[in-house]
Amino acid sequence: MRFLQPCIALGLTLAQCASAITVADITGTKYLSPLSRSSFTNLTGLITAKGPNGLWIRSTNPDDNEQTSESVYVFSRTFGSNLTAGNIVTFDGNVTEYRSANDYLYLTEVTTPRNTKVLSAGNPVTPVVLGARTSGIIGDKDVSPPTEQYSSLDNGDVFGVPNNVSLISRVNPELDPTQYGMDFWESLSGELVTIQ
What secondary structure, in 3-state letters, does 14-32 show? Predict the structure, then answer.
């Protein structure tokens, strides 16, 4: 019954709830999404920001897994035209990995959003405060970046893998945001943040 409570509160049917997906399901616990190149139905999220080519949504039902981002970018020039920050929406779409150059890391994003339904408007959009512990906004997570190590792939030396940033995308390691700076920022990918 605990699983159904968020669905009932959002006015979703039992069928919609059964096939619902979360932002954390999309972002996963690694650099690349486990759902890349697949489609989904019934993603629900709070719009936290808009840009000229899309918008960012945050999960309305965050997990407490420090490895998963609770926000994702939705790429579409037309999807957000009638939506505003503070709207909670549900929609279907596709998961893809995008990068603008071979040397850059991939960005997990949602494309081809469709079947959009606005569930509510005027909801508060609260940024995650870096340097504090969250409670509820993106789950119970420590959002203080590590300051000693950059990546699990660099053997303790930020220059340990020279000129090969794409190695992270090939190896796709499990994120450890409490240990590695690069993993920390990936676990907040797409998130609206502020510094304390």
Answer: HHHHHCCECHHHHHCCECC
Q: Is 94:74 a contact under the CB 8 Å cutoff?
A: no
- CA distance linking residue 143 with residue 83, whole number of Å: 29
CB 75 within 8 A of CB 54: yes
Tell me the C-alpha distance between 69 and 188, whole Å.
Answer: 5
Rg (CA), the chain: 17
The pTM of the full predicted model, rounded to 2 decimals, is 0.83
Instruction: Reduce the secondary structure of 101-159 to three states and give it as a string.
Output: CCCCCCEEEEEEEEEEEEEECCCCCCCEEECCECCCCCCCCECCCCCCECCCCCCCCCC
Task: Of 135, 136, 149, give the one whose Cα is nearest residue 184.
Answer: 149
Q: Do 154 and 143 touch, CB atoms closer than 8 A?
A: no
In the numeric block, which tokens belong to residue 95?
Answer: 């998961």
Give the C-alpha distances (Å, rounded to integers) separating 24 from 13, 78, 122.
Answer: 21, 24, 24
Q: Per-10-residue mean pLDDT for the chain, 196 residues long? A: 45 52 96 96 97 95 90 93 96 96 88 97 92 70 80 72 63 89 91 85
Name, in order, each residue with C-beta under 8 angstroms of 39's C-beta and a sequence gap of 6 or more. Answer: 92, 93, 94, 95
